[in-house]
Design a protein that fits this description.
Layout (H helix, E strand, L loop, with lengths): L14 E5 L13 E5 L6 E3 L4 E5 L2 E4 L5 E6 L3 E7 L4 E7 L1 H5 L2 H13 L6 E5 L12 H4 L6 E2 L6 E2 L1 H11 L7 E3 L14 H4 L5 E7 L3
Parallel strand pairs: 2-4, 2-6, 3-5, 9-12
Antiparallel strand pairs: 1-13, 5-8, 6-13, 7-8, 7-9, 10-11
Length: 212
Amino acid sequence: MSPIRSSLLDTVPWLQHGFGTRHNGAWTPPDQTALLHQVHGATIVRVTGPGHHGDGDALIAATPGLWLEIRTADCVPVLIADTRQKLVAAVHAGWRGTAARITEATVREMVGSYGSRPEELVAAVGPCITVCCFEVGEDVASHFPAHTRRTTERPHVDLAAANVDQLTQGGIPLAHVENLGRCTVCEPDVFHSFRRDRAIGRMISAIAIEPA
């Protein structure tokens, strides 16, 4: 099985990307990949070359051929591209990072530091634990009043929708955002899920500018 692709990101001719499954393993080239020690926070790291770049949960780069990699197993992977000036970002948004608005902050960093225009950005929200399975306590739900459902005894939070909202609140048109809507918990044959398995398997999601 190949990494899952976004039909929206596929419309960008110079863009390479994928949302990995449990069957893909490490599918990005190690000597061309930038990654982080993910800490479930809101730190954004701008990079120009491969390797480990310390603690953080979002990467931004404008270097052709450089893959930006994040690893998830229920958290939300978000891939963003600037269609005008060839700039890409990868975001790891757990509930803590989502509460800290890391996805919106990444959009604003692309705008503020690189001159991106929000209307020229496109983004995809990949497979994650969806609202059907993300049962939480009141402490977590309190961070997401607009994205909490209370149709069962305990609240359920829609992290994917929260990150879609952050993309649009950063200025990206809703038509430029794709939510793949795949639940990591509900598809055990396809995805790792920490909530379901309590195991350490992770999926790799990544994005790159195609080399010239």
